[in-house]
Amino acid sequence: MKKLATYFLLVIILVSCDEDDGTPGPGPGPGPSPGKVVNGWAVDLVKVQDAGGRDIIPSIENSTFISASQVSFLTDNELVIGININGDIRAYSHRILDLHEVSNETIGGMPVTVSLCPLTGTALTWDRTINGEVTTFGVAGLLYNSNLIMYDRLTGNNWAQMLSESVNGSLICEEVDNITVVETTWANWKSMYPQSLVQSTDTGFDRDYNNLPFSSLVDPNANPLFPATPEDDRMPKHERVHGIIDGDQARVYPFSNFEDSGTQLLIDFFGSNDLLIVGDADRNFIVSFIDPNSTGENLEFRPVQNGGEVILEDNEGNRWNIFGEAVSGPRMGNKLTPTHSYMGYWFSWAAIFPSPDIFTGGSDG
Amino acid sequence: MKGRLLLGSLAIFAALIPALAQTCCSGGVPISANVGLPVDGAARWQLALNYDLNTLRTFKDGDRTLNDNSRERKTHSVLLSAGFNVNSRLSINSLVSFVRQERRITPLNFPETFNYSNGIGDVVILFRYRITNPLNNSRILTLGAGPKLPTGPTDLQNEQGITLNADMQPGSGAWDAVFWANYLHQFSFRPSLVLFSTGTYQSTGTNPSYLGSLRYELGDNMRLDVGLSDRINIGRLILDPSLALRYRVAARDKNQGQKQENTGGEWVFLIPSVSYSISNNLSFQFSMDLPLYSYLQGSQLTPSYRINTGFYYVFTKKSDLIAPEFK
To answer: Does residue A213 sit at the B interface (CB-CB below 8 Å)?
Structure first.
């Protein structure tokens, strides 16, 4: 159980998908598949785009790792994807995954797939054990509303990254288990986890990792490179936001909520949960957890400034790290329940989860 | 003399069957530069039917070839070009293509995938005007311009009903303007030896419905060819070999007004070619584009080789076979 506490597993939900007769119709709409399958797809096929064919971008199968102190190919402000499974702490850079998008790994003894869609700015990690069988994922060469579609090599199903589910194939509408990731700058990550292993540029592929093909998307006002609808102009299209998903709804938390100096804590209620949202604009991270007080606990959380990996403390004297683990105090070893959430460009949240709420309330710390 | 120059021009035409189209990961449909039929003689019709194969399997970053042979793009084109010389100065050329795009990915240790599409490509119409005196065949300067019409489809789908990527479509979806100039110099010490130079500039338009709703513009591109052609008689066999160098530069594509990464670059090709005169009216030609140098913006597939072969037919009257100096 302790091992299980180091990561979050979303329960596999088999959504009932009714096969349609294939005639054009409203289909499942732009959001997550609510159960309508048309022509074998659980999403609107009009919004599925060809992006070069299966494996046009090669997934990494044999990563090598170096220690954080050995890393010289990253600059302080660029983004990395941090993962902590059973105390096995790894970092994957956008710089490398921009050119591969998928990396099949075993972290902390768990077979996982780390994926990054550079078009939507979304990084997720999936358990790649599906129905008891271990598979690997590759780039399907397709996009759904501009977002990465992967295929699994065991069944050939096509899986939409932001939906975390099969949208085409024998496992259609089946979801994968998400593992919590933390996206932040390299400088912040290495200050929090100097012991971290970092995926090296020795990926087995001859690539120039100084080539940054998506650098233009850093501009919040840049336009998407592929169609993504519906559009929503409430924020710049490429503004990075933290999104929390509840069913087919989403609420996003822009960095503008965390512009005051230091680490901030927001308290919110979304879906059926009280939430703790912790962010720091300077350190470039936003993470979120289910507030344990909603299940009968009585903890008063406060953000911790300059605490390294520790971002929260409470009235019992527990100190909680960025993965929601109590690293000291009477509850040491416990873990806050993470939300189903990740970072991503605003336009992609608006396209995949239409009309998402935008949190504009103040912070609680 | 006139017939000799005509055939010399034909050799040049044969040497200058190039690509002038998409760059990003695209096989490139060899459209506008194929409209280079010789301007020679009034009221003369010309036809050329060519097959062109452009193979891209070299993956480069900048000027460095990457050790990755997992991707291959091929563009097969059948090109029908028709020309009419209104008079000894003015001619009209048109070109229509039938295109087959192929994409093959062979990742290490994983199954190969293959996709293709077929269709009529875009059409080019070029109006050309011979600047220099039509009676002086030792130096010929011809200028031309015309539109490329977006006649080819841009919405072909794969077997699953998913619209294929732009580089797999036969058409570009955009109106382009093509500007063309050709200079021929016949040497007095060896009249069959011809120096030729052709420049083309393609000012590309915008496809307003790329993937349904985006505005996509392929990068403007320019090419310059310089070469020599000569005639060799081997018994009754008349051959016109030529050798040319081509420099081509393409600007980066724009998507929604933003410059696209991994598009655009510079290329230098060596183009050996030979034309065989089957009769006074009919000839057969074969040429290859061999890449000598390229510098690509970012990482791209780039042409590994191109072959072009076909027939050229000119409709002549008996009086055409009499050189003007003897008329």
So the answer is: yes
Contact A215 B110 (CB under 8 A): no
The SS3 of residue B13 is: helix
> Which run of H or of E encompasses A277?
strand A273-280
Output the pLDDT for position B40: 60
- Residues in A 160-189 with any Cβ partner in B closer than 8 A: none
Q: Do A138 and B107 touch (CB under 8 A)?
A: yes
What proportion of chain A, given as a percentage, has pLDDT over 70? 89
How many whole angstroms separate alpha carbon A260 and alpha carbon A277? 15
Residue A4 has pLDDT above 50, yes or no: no
Mean pLDDT of chain B: 85
* Contacts A–B by Cβ distance under 8 A: 89
pLDDT of residue B261: 87
Domains defined along chain B, listed by start: 2-318 (2.40.160.40)
CA–CA distance, B294 with B62 (Å, rounded to integer) = 8
Q: CA of B171, closest CA in chain A: separation in Å? A: 16
Strand partners, B105: B71, B113
Alpha helix ranges (H) inside A25-138 = 94-97
Interface of B with A in 15-34 (CB under 8 A): 25
**First-to-final CA distance of chain B:** 12
B contacts of A225 (beta carbons < 8 Å): 255-256, 258, 260
Mutation target for A interface from B57, B63, B104, B113: give the one with most A CBs within 10 A.
B113
Q: Would you tell me how many other CB atoms lie within 10 Å of the CB of residue B292? A: 12
Query: Mind listing the pLDDT tens digit for each residue in B225-255?
Result: 999 999 999 888 899 999 999 999 999 999 8
- Cα-Cα end-to-end distance for chain A: 33
Does residue B176 or residue A261 have the better pLDDT?
A: B176
Task: Report how far apart, in Å, the C-alpha atoms of A62 and of each of A72, A87, A95, A102 are.
Answer: 20, 21, 17, 12
Token pair in block for residue B279? 């009769």
Least confident residue range of A21-25, A105-109, B32-36: A21-25
Pick the residue of A23, A48, A50, A221 with the most B CBs within 10 A to test the interface with B by mutation.
A50
Contact A207 B164 (CB under 8 A): no
- Model confidence at B19: pLDDT above 50: no
Q: Give yes or no for residue A302 having a pLDDT over 50.
A: yes
Residues of chain B contacting A214 with CB distance shorter than 8 Å = 261
Beta bridge partner(s), residue B229? B194, B242
Q: Is B56 on the interface with A (CB under 8 A)?
A: no
Of A175-179, A351-355, B41-45, B310-314, the least confident: B41-45
Q: Tell me if B49 sits within 8 A of B310, measured CB to CB.
A: yes
Cis upstream peptide for A338 (omega within 30°): no
